[in-house]
Amino acid sequence: MAKTVAVIGAGISGLAALKCCLEVGLQATCYEMSDAVGGLWKFTEHTEEGRASIYRSVFTNACKEMMCYPDLPIPDEYPNFMHHSIFLQYLQLYAKHFDLSRHIRFKTKVISVKKRPDFHTTGQWDVVMEMNGKQESAIFDAVMICTGHHVYPNLPLKSFPGIEKFKGRYIHNKDYKDPKEYQGKRVLVVGMGNSGADIASELSQTAAQVFLSTRSGNWVMSRVWDNGYPWDMVYLTRYETFLKYVLPRSLSDWMYQKMMNKRFNHDNYSLAPLDRSLRKEPVFNDYLSTCIICGTVVMKPNVKEFTKTSAIFEDGTAQENIDTVIFATGYTYAYPFLDDAIVKDSNNEVALYKGVFPPKLEKPTLAVVGLVQSLGGIPPTSDVQARWAVRVFTGECKLPSNSSMLEDMEEKQGKKKSWFGQSDTLQTDYVVYMDELMSFMGAKTNLPCLFLTDPKLAWEVFFGPCSPYQFRLTGPGKWNGARKAILNQWNRTIQATKTRVVTGSPHLFPFFHLLCFFAVSLLSLAIVLMSK
Ligand code: FAD
Ligand code: NAP
Hey, what's the signal peptide range on this chain (predicted)? Predict the structure, then answer.
């Protein structure tokens, strides 16, 4: 009989997990506490307990060719960067296309997941659900946790002495919906991740003044990158990844900083990160630099302390008469239905092999999907994680021994620090990580071989965007439309903005581009050979 799997959550990750289970013949049931699919992308007017919450103006920060599932391109007519309501339509389309909804039990919250007494031999779980105030339980052979990682606000009030005296209002950005109530107010936003930058720029239109305080600064990228293409179509390539790792670190860092400072000098805008070589997630924001140059957002360092009405910063400056503080200080992870000891290490941090499997379980029958953070979109990442996880459940793929997994995690931790700095998030390099999981499933594209058999495709795979379709090009789970989707990805990108016929536009000289590629490739090869 087919193994049974409980998938918890029907957001991006849960939908991918459910589909991957069904693909390999597992008998999956998905439990979703809300009444529809979409997770975080299903906007609600009010914050709900135990679920992520977004503001009204959220747009994707990955473009449509990079933020789709690998086997279902986003419709041609959708814009490159999508408002949350449009991206939600895509998720609904995905659920419909693969006929997933009939396997989902809506308005059903999982409240407990426990090992069964005979877990060491069966690997089975007791799962308790609650719907309409009634509880129900069931036994499952495996569990996939897809409950999201932007649910529990990190509100580090202890880091901000005097906040208890502050007479104004303070909130975490999870409770921010739109700028209406901030009209004419003096607002301090603390934390410059994507939420902080978005909210500060949005408020700058209506608030009397916005201050944006950042502890360590960050690089700010525009969604619109070289020649007007989406940043990730240009930057998230195998070629860039190859250069990053093959060049001496100092040269690679220099090139990275040069690229980041191309549009404006981050020092002059008080944005520059303290450690400029780290590849932690940049801020994707097209407006922040304009707000700063127009003075509607004023950058400040970390807050040292609050008084009744003001904020005093670490450089000794102060801002008086602050009405509201919005802490955009990120999120912490929690799985309240599960014993922490299963997923957390001795430092009380979530520690999983490849960001998916708890390394110390007697049987590999529990997987977390969607936790790892990288520059890539979550849909392809969750799809690849889920495809690997279900193959571990079926026995088609094997995990290394517990000690090897722990060793690997320790080694990766060191590398993570060197590239991404000290952080609680599980940051990783998109291309390297995805290829690693693909190789576990025997589904990684053999690029040298592809250059011999299909050079046109190989060229696009290496030099073009590392789009999701690449992860269903070969091997188990292959999608037959992948080649065509890869070769058409630029056309679809351009189509979305070319909504008016323009005559007489000059054609670029492709030979010049070719020449540039060869020159840069030769140069990098020469540098590598010299540095050996
Ligand atoms: P979620 O979307 O959070 O879905 C989890 C689901 O699980 C929810 O439907 C919830 O109701 C359900 N659930 C939770 N607990 C239970 C339970 N106990 N029982 C039953 N159901 C449960 N990522 C990108 O790739 N690109 C972006 O542009 C991007 N923009 C973002 C913007 C914002 C403001 C934020 C906060 C995050 C953004 N992210 C982005 C990251 C985002 O987390 C992912 O896009 C994605 O939503 C994660 O999907 P998920 O399915 O893992 O989690
Ligand atoms: P985040 O990326 O974790 O950023 C949190 C910020 O808070 C960081 O700048 C961090 O500073 C700061 N911070 C944390 N603790 C602090 C402390 N004690 N004192 C001072 N500063 C502190 O969180 P987020 O911005 O909410 O983003 C969460 C995820 O959602 C990200 O993956 C992001 O890409 C995504 N998102 C996407 C969009 C979109 O446009 N599509 C919009 C919003 C969010 P340090 O850098 O110094 O640690």
Answer: 1-17
- Buried/exposed code over 227-248 (b: 16+ C-beta within 10 A; e: otherwise): eebbbbbbbbbbbbbebbeebe
- The average pLDDT across 342-360 equals 91
Question: What is the Cα–Cα distance from 373 to 425, expressed in whole angstroms?
Answer: 7
CB-CB neighbours of 172 under 10 Å: 21
Phi-psi region at 355: left, alpha or beta (left = phi > 0; alpha = psi -120 to 50): left
Q: Return left, alpha or beta for 223; rule: phi > 0 is left, psi -120 to 50 is alpha, else beta.
A: alpha
Fold match flag (4-151+332-439 vs 155-222+263-329): yes
pLDDT one-digit tens code per residue, 365-381: 999 999 999 999 999 99
Q: What's the CATH architecture for 155-222+263-329?
A: 3-Layer(bba) Sandwich (3.50)
Kindly indicate whether the domain formed by 4-151+332-439 is annotated with CATH number 3.50.50.60.
yes
Which tokens belong to 17? 């997990």
Q: Give pLDDT tens digits for 89-103.
A: 999 999 999 999 999
Q: Give pLDDT, residue 418.
A: 77
Distance 235 CA to ligand 1 centre (A): 25
Q: What is the CB < 6 Å shell around ligand 2?
A: 58-61, 150, 154, 156, 159, 190-196, 198, 215-216, 281, 284, 302, 328-330, 373
Q: What is the DSSP string of 128-164?
A: EEEETTEEEEEEESEEEE---SSSEE---GGGSTTTT
Dist. CA 199–CA 189, nearest whole Å: 8
Residue pair 295/270 in contact by the 8 Å Cβ criterion: no
**Is pLDDT above 90 for 529?**
no
Using the predicted structure, report yes or no on whether residue 454 has a pLDDT greater than 90: yes
Ligand nearest to the CA of residue 285, numbered in listed order: 2
User: Best substitution site from 378, 430, 433, 434 to test ligand 1's pocket, by max atoms within 8 Å of Cβ?
Assistant: 378
Residue range 217-255, pLDDT digits in tens: 999 999 999 999 999 999 999 999 999 999 999 999 999
CA of 192 to the centre of ligand 2 (A): 6
3-state secondary structure of 298: strand
pLDDT attached to residue 507: 56
In whole angstroms, what is the distance from residue 105 CA to residue 172 CA? 31
The least confident of 179-193, 285-299, 453-467, 506-520 is 506-520
What atom of ligand 1 comes closest to residue 337's alpha carbon? 18
Extents of the domains making up the chain: 4-151+332-439, 155-222+263-329, 449-531
Pairing of strands 311-313, 303-306: antiparallel
Say how many Å lie between the CA of residue 315 and the centre of ligand 2. Answer: 22
Closest CA to 306 of 172, 498, 169: 169
331 Cα–ligand 2 center, Å: 8
Quick check: 301 pLDDT over 90?
yes
Residue 329 has a pLDDT of 98
State the pLDDT at residue 309: 97
